Automatic annotation (TrEMBL):
Annotated source species: marine sediment metagenome
Protein name, as recorded: Uncharacterized protein
Lineage of origin: unclassified sequences, metagenomes, ecological metagenomes
Amino acid sequence: MTDDFRDVEVYFLDLSAAHSGLQVTPHWSKIRVVEVLETNGEFRVELMRGPGGEWLALYNDAVVDGEAEVVAKGQKEM
């Protein structure tokens, strides 16, 4: 069974060139689908999976200074 949820946090992350790959929300366990609802920059948000579980990763493809704002909605297994 799956359950829709919306993450209540807004993430503010350094998007300078020195921080091109940032992993966030390491406790999004058992997530199967993630949809980014809005962002304030040109970057990708990906759901990553590994031995430790699932997490979101932010990648900026261009040189951007400032902070990222991400609101995401996901679906997880119950």
